[in-house]
Amino acid sequence: MSSDHNDEGRRDFLMVAAGSFAAVGAGASLWPLVDQMNPDASAKALASIEIDLTPIKEGQAVTVMWRGKPIFIRKRTADEIKSAESADNADMRDPQTDETRVQKPEWLVLIGICTHLGCIPRGQANGDVHGDFGGWFCPCHGSHYDTSGRIRKGPAPKNLEVPPYTFVSDTKIKIG
Amino acid sequence: MSEHSSSYKPSNAFTRWMDERLPIIRLVYDSFGVFPTPRNLNYLWTFGGILTFCLLVQIVTGIVIAMHFVAHGDHAFASVEHLMRDVNWGDLIRYTHAVGASMFFFAAYVHIFRGLYYGSYKSPREILWILGVIILLMMIITAFMGYSLVWGQMSFWAVTVITNLFTAIPIVGESITQWIWGGYSVGDPTLNRLFSLHYLFPFIIAALVGLHIWALHVVGSNNPTGVEVKTKEDTLSFFPYFVIKDGFMVIMFALLFSWFVFYAPNYLGHSDNYIEANPLQTPPHIVPEWYFLPFYAILRAIPDKLFGVIAMVLAIVVLFVIPWLDTSKIKSVKYRPMFKPFFWLFVITCLALGYLGAKAPEGYYLLASRLFTAYYFIHFLVVMPVVGLIEKPKALPDSITESVTGKSSPEETAKEGAQS
Ligand code: HEM
Ligand code: FES
Q: Does the predicted interface ipTM exceed a cut of 0.85?
């Protein structure tokens, strides 16, 4: 009788042990199948790029590619800087001061991807619309960004992102 | 009906031998030969057959296209153009596949609204209905992935916008999105995996259709009265009556299909998709294919990113639970005077959302999108439970037979049948 009880306890233990072992094994063999979809080594080999700023005149903007994403580089006019700084205390969805978004006030560097659903906002080319706040306007669902790339109106939740970059000289930046 | 026993009798030595080993002839005979089907089905019941036809067309044309398609960011667009210009009959085959997707959704929407009107989602058909909603979800994903393969401007930006929906998920959203992309933006790895899955999913859909029909054959078809089959007199055998009827409508449907393929192959598409994908330039208006417009309108109606995404997903997910949201015992809207106008208001809502999904989300369009989005959910979450409780339904016919002949009760018909 008592040995029967012991047997049952043993069987339960064996069941639980075998079950857990199988679950861990299944999980471990599933992981490579899931992880293979993540960005691979070649995508991660983060090519950093250097950009010469000399040809960009005040009030002009250029777009370059970095990691498959467009980067907006804009040499802001004094007016644009002033309007960005004076809006620092305005009611914003993602409050940030202009100062924290630039290294030198005249150079604004942004990832040119709308933080709503990934379209490329307009405002880079000559004759583009700039939206209600003089910066960029995303045509997809109507997000307006100001001259600091901050979201001011529309569905986007966040300001245009600032990529990691450094000034390697006065007229050259390195992104990445 | 689940207990009907097989009446199949193998007629010769081979079929007897076969029947004892793999009774597949018996299965076909029972399921599509003598299968008892309500005698009062109208033409809306032919759309199941039409949908099967659509799936077959997509699989056959798709496999052919895949012989010429190159799943690479640099070559996909050119390979589709090559298919259109150089491959024998290539334009016909591609247009059939592209128009076929639209026809598939058209048929699916008719089929779904048929179910909504005649209460086909109610007991005992809940599982049958849920399988249908899963098939709809899979069709949506499949068509979206197929559209992306063309790698035109609309393809690329549709993939960008839709995959970015996942960034709305708090904390892990960004990692999930990069996992889907296989990079830091939509690119070649994304295209490859979309192709792999676009090839796979239709076969999963085919398997789900098998389950859907299995579930249908356990509980039997609903019918325009919503009164369940009571006697044999209420039914006719599937062959020849419904095979002929379904066949006739498949031909009618194929005529409409052919008209689009031969005379207006690009009418339902967007011309921007004949411009190769350019990751540096978003087209001025991103518009999905027409069959996604109502959902797109719901997404844009809500000014918050996360809640917009949630609402769009819920618009489909809510369909899973309507068997339990509808409190009425009566299936067919024909006998539900109070619910009927709400049903039609819901139809108008879906059409209006489709129209608004193609318009810029501004001013009155945006306001209208919001009102119709609100009604879309009110219909299911408020009208369905409440009207079912307070409504006084019209008198139902005693049986399907009575609704058709106008007089005989099932017992009498059964007696007459026994006498003759
Ligand atoms: C549920 C069934 C299916 C649906 C709803 C569907 C839908 C679509 C759609 C909407 C497109 C874009 C059409 C265009 O604008 O050109 C497409 C393209 C494509 N599909 Fe499918 N498809 C299905 C099944 C299949 C199957 C089984 C294959 C087999 C491999 C396939 C292979 C392709 C290929 C290679 C393309 C890209 C070339 C093109 O644009 O025609 N599809 N599909
Ligand atoms: S993607 Fe820019 S507003 Fe939606």
A: no
